[in-house]
Amino acid sequence: MTHTLNFTTRQALAAAGLLFATSLLHAAALPEALKAAASQQQTLELQATGVQIYECKAIKDAVPARFEWAFKAPEAELFDAKGRSVGKHYAGPSWEFQDGSKVVGEVRARDAGPDPKAIPWLLLSAKSNSGSGVFAKTAAIQRIDTVAGQAPAEGCSAETLGREARISYRAAYRFFETP
């Protein structure tokens, strides 16, 4: 289902302000390696609900042949503090706001996070930005408060080679700019 909303940049930034108090609660628990640079300012926090996609692959040069679930891509919908769909998250990793702006990131740091059954928490740097909207000036992204999303517990094998597994997950994504 596709949602079309009249959600302005001003409204997005207002929603981010509402999340500021929540972000202060997280700051104490956030591992040092995942903190954005002191020169960067948090502009937005969005909730993501979707899947982490894994593919069963052969481990290169393994003798005898062995197989593992390899991360392929995320696929998630992004929601503001009021639960409205405002964008999407997909391979790249990329985040795209409904205003057409986009940021592509690359992992700078990771932490296992407090839940051993969840995907790791991350700090990413912006590799590229496009558009003139909400994500146009994003310099860093944090993935925190992850729930689930790890590769399947059951192993993959020659019989399942090439098969995809779509594992549900949730996370909070914080976006930072350099003023």
Automatic annotation (TrEMBL):
Keyword terms of this UniProt record: Signal
Pfam families membership: DUF3455
Keyword NAD set for record: no
Signal peptide start and end residues: 1-27
InterPro entries from the UniProt entry: DUF3455, TAT_signal
Top-rank lineage group of the source organism: Bacteria
Keyword hit for ATP-binding: no
UniProt name for this protein: DUF3455 domain-containing protein
Organism encoding this protein: Kinneretia aquatilis
